[in-house]
Amino acid sequence: MRYVIGAVAVILGLVQLFYTRKAMANLQVRGDKNTSPFVIYGYWSSFVVGAILIIFGVGFALQTM
Q1: Which of 13, 30, 49, 50 would give a disulfide with 54, using CB separation of 3.0 to 4.6 Å?
Q2: Would you report the helix, strand and coil content of the chain in percent, each value rounded to 5?
């Protein structure tokens, strides 16, 4: 069961990173002077959540007990 939970967490983390990258690319193309300067903090926190999910998933799946 822990392998399934670990795999799901890793997949969710990868999806999170994929959509963060996609949103940043969209901002670079369509961003203008009306874009909030705080949007980069949202992308940063999204990246951190994705990285934490991947680390949690790998650690949970490889847990030896």
Answers
A1: 13
A2: 80, 0, 20
Quick: pLDDT tens for 28-46: 999 889 999 999 999 999 9
Helix (H) / strand (E) element for 1: namely none
pLDDT value for 64: 65
pTM for this model (two decimals): 0.88
Tokens of 53: 């999910």
**How far apart, in whole angstroms, are the C-alpha atoms of residue 40 and residue 36?**
9
Beta carbons within 10 angstroms of residue 14's beta carbon: 14
